[in-house]
Write a structure and sequence with these properties.
The chain is α+β, with helices and mostly antiparallel strands. The protein is built from ten helices and six strands. The protein folds into three domains: about 35 residues; about 190 residues, no CATH class; about 50 residues, no CATH class.
Length: about 300
């Protein structure tokens, strides 16, 4: 009789006692009649508060590992660099809606940053219009997950070659980087017919996380909640879209970043004129700080040193 078989009754008894303990605790809260708080808010006929039907939306399809699309001889021989497939943002300008409008195709499996996090990034980190830094961070995370998943695949493959000792140089570096995940998850994920599937489950989790980065949408300078669902004709097809337009809420709640106002004043006076015409009655600071300070100095000088007639 093996050691595992000797401790099997003890393990089963421990599981039973823990199960009874949880049932007793849950019974104090109405278990099994009380189903608890729903994980997803329910609305009539499956409609969101903004009016978009989740069930009617299509699902965006991407693949992990990323599809191989070599563009030169080097990539044909050595493979392509993994790339994120982000949601495209279609920017447009109109006389009524302004210059910073955009729309994205609406899918049921896209997701956004929380409003508070998007606000923190825009206000505290001053990442408003240029989201290249966020795109780089996403790209780095994606490539890191892809590389780590390949390491997991190599570690799983090594376990099938009994003549390779994975704890010797140079394989010891690989086992050090991977085996901690198996130690952490082996007590949670059971074996199937005596086969340890921890590595396969962890590999699938990495794939889901990496592929989810393809469906993450950055909505700067708008908050994610400002998206308005509607339908547009794209390539002769009627599609569901989310439109972000007019004045961003953060530009009304907080001062517009000075570098943006400076850009309007120096290089795009047409945008400045539009903002003054459309939103001048809101009391927004549309001129750059340098011009506001010069205007204050001029007003001070005119007040205490009026021109001599």
């Amino acid at each position: 009789m093996g050691l595992d078989e000797k401790f099997a009754p003890v393990r089963i008894a421990f599981y039973d006692k823990v199960s009874e303990l949880f049932i007793k605790i849950a019974s104090q809260f109405g278990y099994p009649d009380n189903s608890g708080m729903p994980t997803i808010s329910r609305f009539p006929t499956g409609v969101q508060p903004n009016g978009a039907s989740i069930e009617s939306l299509p699902k965006r399809i991407t693949y992990f590992p990323p599809a191989q699309r070599p563009e030169n001889w080097f990539e044909m021989i050595f493979g392509t660099t993994p790339r994120v497939e982000p949601m495209p943002r279609y920017i447009y300008e109109t006389q009524d809606e302004g210059f910073y409008n955009f729309y994205i195709e609406n899918y049921k499996n896209i997701f956004f940053l929380p409003n508070w996090l998007s606000e923190f990034i825009q206000v505290k980190l001053n990442i408003c219009l240029d989201i290249s830094v966020l795109e780089i961070v996403r790209e780095v995370l994606f490539i890191g997950l892809v590389i780590y998943s390949q390491m997991v695949i190599l570690r799983i493959a090594l376990s099938w070659f009994i003549y390779i000792n994975p704890y010797t140089f140079p394989w010891s570096y690989l086992t050090t980087a991977i085996d901690w995940t198996e130690d952490a998850l082996q007590g949670v994920i059971p074996s199937i017919f005596g086969v340890n599937i921890t590595g396969s489950v962890f590999l699938g989790t990495l794939g889901i996380l990496a592929d989810s980065l393809n469906h993450l949408v950055f909505t700067m300078p708008f908050l994610p909640s400002e998206g308005q669902p509607t339908k547009l004709v794209i390539n002769n097809q009627m599609k569901d879209v989310l439109v972000f337009h007019y004045l961003p809420t953060l530009w009304y709640k907080y001062p517009i970043p000075n570098d943006i106002r400076e850009f309007w004043f120096r290089e795009r006076p047409d945008i400045l004129k539009y903002m003054q015409t459309a939103y001048g009655d809101l009391g927004l600071h549309l001129l750059p700080d340098s011009q506001i300070q010069m205007q204050m100095i001029q007003d001070f000088t005119d007040f205490y040193h009026p021109p001599v007639l």
